[in-house]
Predict the structure.
Amino acid sequence: MERSKKIIFVSHCLLNQNVRAVGREKFAGSFKDLLELFAASGVGIVQLPCPQLDFNGGLDRRVKSRDSYETNGYRKHCHKLSINLINQIENYLRKNYSVIAILGVELSVTCAVHQIKNGRKSSPGKGILIEELENEMQKKNFQVPIIGVNIDNIYSSIEKVQSLLDFS
Ligand code: SF4
């Protein structure tokens, strides 16, 4: 059996909904349709850490606004995580593996790619971890696509990921 040499980096809660803020779970465990797509395509999965687990109540935390996370401590925490993740990605790239994408989670103040939710309102914006990852990639002069998965719109998310895997 030959390894696929294809890797996808996936936000923690897409594989483990147990870390979502209380009341924000969509599945009992993982996003099964995504897992099935990954398994069928032969891509290897790297699970990102959930930065919010170490802040604001961990597993028992409630949904909080972006402002309450926009603190030096939290940004530094995301910055450190992003350095580690970018190093991991670089290791794969150096060995000629294909890093297909990083999958973020829309509406999250930490992991959103295009839309964040602040209270009841959603607006264009990126989460803090995603901003830090983009900055680090820019500094290192390379780019891996960052794709937002919206767990409130499962079908469009699956289509997006499917087309990525089809062309990888
Ligand atoms: S979106 Fe990001 S911060 Fe929020 S639960 Fe998922 S992994 Fe954690």
